[in-house]
Amino acid sequence: MKKLCLALALLLGLAMAAPSAQAGPVIERILQQKELVVATTGAYPPLTAKTKEGEFIGLDMDIAKALAQSLGVRLKIRQMPFDRLIPAAASGEVDLAIGGISVTPQRNLEVYFAGPYFVSGQTLLATTKVGEGIKGLDDVNQPEFTIAVAKGTTSEQATRQIMRRAKIIATDTMDQALEMVLSGEVKAMVADYPYCAVAVFRNPEAKLGTLQKPFTFEPLGVALPPNDPQWDNLVNNFLFNMEGGGRLNYLKNRWFKSPAWMRLLP
């Protein structure tokens, strides 16, 4: 009888300890410290940005806040340059990295990716007057059509590959390319969709517009440490539920359809 009671006690103890023992290292750390540590740049609106008061806002930040809330832990944001995001997630320095990170095979060799939660890509930005004559990329891929792109970017690579016949002018920065569009020096510029969306908001008097759909496919994902499949599964399921429940679409409209949030920026 004593042996039976001892065996039952051991089984009960193992059953009670099982959830903790089965938790992966990232989840276990989050629950123990009651803190979700997130890396972002804070410099890529409307996905991630910093307000005048120093608060992090944007679509990606809303996702991080909602995830922390669902886990019942506080959110700690660590700001760092873009080229530090993947290494920080890969090393486990942070629990996740988010901030307009495109899912690529090279990056996937270093980290897990949850998502994608948003599909970005390269698009064309021009005045609505110029845009009236653009029905498709064939109208742009002409020798007389001038396009500005920031040199050394994926925008330049895509433009030179897809619009080979157009006259392409490389600038030092995307802002310089935008200035050329605003001044009429070029007919259009090519940049990633989030940048173009913000440019439309910031220059209402210029009556700018973009293509309805980006002409490249660049899915954005949440970068996670590669040593915890359960954490990857949890974040993927969280994003799936946000998408299915309509919350993710609501947030996309909030940040990409209305410029109201821009008054919060410095």
Give a verbal description of the structure.
The chain is an alpha/beta fold. It folds into two domains: 11-120 and 218-264, Periplasmic binding protein-like II (D-Maltodextrin-Binding Protein, domain 2, 3-Layer(aba) Sandwich), CATH 3.40.190.10; 122-210, 3-Layer(aba) Sandwich (D-Maltodextrin-Binding Protein, domain 2), CATH 3.40.190. Helices cover 45% and strands 23% of the residues. It contains twelve helices and 13 strands. It has helices at 2-22, 25-33, 59-71, 82-91, 105-108, 128-131, 137-140, 154-162, 174-183, 193-202, 229-244, 247-256; strands at residues 35-40, 43-44, 48-50, 56-57, 74-79, 96-97, 112-120, 122-127, 146-150, 167-171, 188-192, 208-210, 218-224. The protein has a five-stranded mixed β-sheet with strand order 10-9-11-8-12, sandwiched between helices. Strand 3 (48-50) and strand 4 (56-57) form a beta hairpin.
